[in-house]
TrEMBL record:
Catalyzes ATP-dependent phosphorylation of adenosylcobinamide and addition of GMP to adenosylcobinamide phosphate. Pfam families: CobU. GTP binds at residues 9-16, 34-36, 85. It is an enzyme of class 2 (transferase). The active site is at residue 52. InterPro entries: CobU/CobP, P-loop_NTPase. This is Adenosylcobinamide kinase. Its EC number is 2.7.1.156, 2.7.7.62. It catalyses: adenosylcob(III)inamide + GTP = adenosylcob(III)inamide phosphate + GDP + H(+); adenosylcob(III)inamide phosphate + GTP + H(+) = adenosylcob(III)inamide-GDP + diphosphate; adenosylcob(III)inamide + ATP = adenosylcob(III)inamide phosphate + ADP + H(+). Gene3D superfamilies: P-loop containing nucleotide triphosphate hydrolases (3.40.50.300). One of its GO terms (biological process) is cobalamin biosynthetic process. CDD domains: CobU. GO terms for molecular function: adenosylcobinamide kinase activity; ATP binding; cobinamide phosphate guanylyltransferase activity; GTP binding.
């Protein structure tokens, strides 16, 4: 049985490092699914991407997947482990979608995860712990990512929260909410 894992937490919490640690523990080929799009005009963004790249073992394959996440997961073949970093960036890449299109994309991802025949490790940012964004696009992003993370958390095998320098296994400590609005 493939394992499906969600690693969530705030910015700079270590969630990507924890996800990479988990991926290193599997005895399967790891495919790092990078959802970030490079931007040569933004040196700070490029440094972030480079930092993630340098942490990865050289034998890991890297795929750049800013949009077609469901297709990438569907096409993966056992015994692979896909590490998707990150859902927040992927949601941001899809913000131009109208609500109906977004719902179809999100539903397709969730269905694909449930049917996936490979190990999956998702990294997702927690954005709803702060002030409600003052602008519509910020609220749309926060709401879409929060809702998707909540739905994903109920269908994966294990959900981790990384915060304050600690990793918490929420699947052992908590109880999933079944009714999702």
């Amino acid at each position: 049985m493939p394992k499906h894992i969600l690693v969530t937490g705030p910015s700079r919490s270590g969630k990507s490092e924890w996800a990479e640690t988990l991926a290193n523990k599997v005895s399967k080929p790891v495919i790092y699914v990078a959802t970030a799009q490079e931007n040569p005009d933004d040196p700070e963004w490029q440094q972030r991407i480079e930092k993630h790249l340098l942490r990865r073992p050289s034998h890991w394959q890297t795929l750049s997947v800013p949009h077609d996440l469901s297709i990438t997961i569907e096409q993966a073949k056992p015994p692979s482990c896909l590490l998707v970093d990150s859902l927040g960036t992927w949601v941001a890449n899809e913000l131009e979608q109208d609500e109906e299109s977004w719902q179809a994309i999100a539903s397709q991802l969730l269905t694909t995860v449930q049917k996936a025949s490979v190990d999956l490790i998702f990294v997702a940012e927690e954005t709803g712990w702060g002030v409600v964004p003052a602008y519509p696009l910020g609220r749309l992003f926060r709401d879409r990512l929060g809702h998707l993370t909540r739905q994903l958390g109920t269908i994966v095998d294990t959900t981790y929260l990384v915060t304050g320098g600690h990793v918490l296994n929420l699947s052992l400590l908590g109880e999933p909410l079944i009714n999702i609005e």
